[in-house]
């Protein structure tokens, strides 16, 4: 199938899509049935929703303001008009840096509205991490929360325009002078709207490219068929909007049907549960780590408003599922998704849930289990998970496209088995990705950060099972001959990593060793350092 005529003036993203013969198979019947050739995701999520629920329906509850859908549209329109006034063109890449807030959502939707491409980042990422993303995405503009300028100011490879929101020189103050109506850019449904970064198992970031229709597809598959949200629902999610899990849960799913979203800048488990009570949240998204922490932090889990709880980002143990169900009466909805696929593609809800199983394929998707030769294997045998549907991997100018997209399928890097009833059960990761507290952490990235410390001669980083976090980042370090092991050195190394990369990636445990296991050719064997699952 040929491309639809683009609505972009700047054709960078379309020109840097993978060749069509490297794309996975797409569920074209689903796409053709549900999406017009020309659509803008911002317009679909706000303007079209207002036609259903009206302008006075509450859309956002947040520390920086509550907004009805009508107020939200007016604010988005002002920002969109301002962005166009300073020369932003459709197809330009705009980086967003800030914690979850009403302001960030408004900016994200305004970026899409003018036909630009949102490049979402985590506000805790350091300058060297941001530089890698900028090198891939060729960002021309950046919208930065004024409180998180320190690391941004250390970036050396950005020569575009920085726009600050909050504090002095506020984008929103400037935008307030512009009209409260705006005609959305006439984008094609297959114009790129979002670049979402995933670190990958090598630590080199990959930009996943998502169309305007893809943003809607995750709402029209997982949300519609499994979550089954209601217009009266109030959503809450602990994940940042820079994670596609958080973007779907906090923006796309509620706005697609006209529900309300609660946005929190930071929500450790005790705070999260109080926010649920205070705001009468009905749909909660967080990682298994948070559900376990909530269970341990309080004896009062009477949450009468909650009707849906979703767990994703890491493996959900059956024990966690059972403990949550016993304490709350709510059946946790498990799910596996991927940044490459945008959101969840295997899940189950209500009476379809089988504790210990991730679930069945979400309608619109297909999944199989294959061996290393890519032959489908019998029921009950462990192999590689391969999936396809209306969304699929498209890396921005990255040779690893051919590793993830194989024979028309998306190969996620997860080991699974499928039972005779069509349920999929998680076994482990097949690569060096560490999934800790819902965060994807690439072992080589942590190793590279440690190697910049003058005490470190060699290092190997692995994930080890942990009851609280799912996996724990553990570093095995060979010190320089002049160095002496000490608790002070461990802390120094941990603090060093926090300064080099996002703090959540630091090794929680450091083990000093005389040597690292290697092959006869000198290749590091991380698997020999990993402990067995208990």
UniProtKB/TrEMBL annotation:
Name of this chain's protein: Unannotated protein
PANTHER family associated with the record: ACETYL-COA SYNTHETASE, ANTHRANILATE--COA LIGASE
Coiled-coil zones: none
Molecular function terms, GO-annotated: acid-thiol ligase activity
Alphabetically ordered keywords of this record: Ligase
Pfam families: AMP-binding (PF00501), AMP-binding_C (PF13193)
Residue ranges annotated for the AMP-dependent synthetase/ligase domain, each copy included: 55-391
Residue stretches making up the AMP-binding enzyme C-terminal domain: 445-523
Record lineage: unclassified sequences, metagenomes, ecological metagenomes
InterPro entries in UniProt: AMP-bd_C, AMP-bd_C_sf, AMP-binding_CS, AMP-dep_synth/lig_dom, ANL_N_sf
An individual GO BP term: secondary metabolite biosynthetic process
